Amino acid sequence: MTALTSLVYMSVAADDLTDDQLVAMLREARLRNHALGVSGLLLAKGGRFMQVLEGPVWSVEDRFAAIERDPRHTGVKSLSRESIATRRFDGWAMAFGSPTGDELRDEPGFSTFLSDRTGLPTGVAGTPADWLLRWFRGRDLQDLPEERITLGRHAA
Ligand SMILES: Cc1cc2nc3c(=O)[nH]c(=O)nc-3n(C[C@H](O)[C@H](O)[C@H](O)COP(=O)(O)O)c2cc1C
């Protein structure tokens, strides 16, 4: 059986990305992720990103290395890395959520987790990803200085 991993990171958007730029990024990400067997969820809010990447270890690490180098964001910090037995975001080639999402609702993969406070896939309940995504949704991140964002004991 292929070893699966789940990685969660957070980062700071370099500029205010327009909805069009976000959609272009999402489409690109979904294509590559699908090809590589990576699934997950990308949230954008208050000038910050949080993303869950899950799949075979090598493809998650390959995507994460590419993402870390991307100039569209800075301060990429991994918050959790777990070995997982089964996928939790099966079929989510990369779901994407933003607080209003008005322009994005019709986009394949749009997630209403932030805009309508809908739930996550059932397999996520009680995992670090669950906790981190809910934290990101509940927290007012706008204008929060980077150093004020602390997430408990150890970053992965
Ligand atoms: C916040 C953010 C999330 C991204 N998520 C993904 C992703 O899930 N999958 C992906 O292939 N690229 C994603 N990208 C784009 C990558 O950073 C990178 O531009 C792309 O994978 C091409 O890199 P490569 O040519 O080195 O493979 C993301 C970029 C940003 C800024």
Automatic annotation (TrEMBL):
InterPro entries: Acylphosphatase-like_dom_sf, BLUF_domain. SUPFAM superfamilies: Acylphosphatase/BLUF domain-like. Gene3D superfamilies: 3.30.70.100. Residues 4-95 form the BLUF domain. It holds the Pfam family BLUF. This is BLUF domain-containing protein.
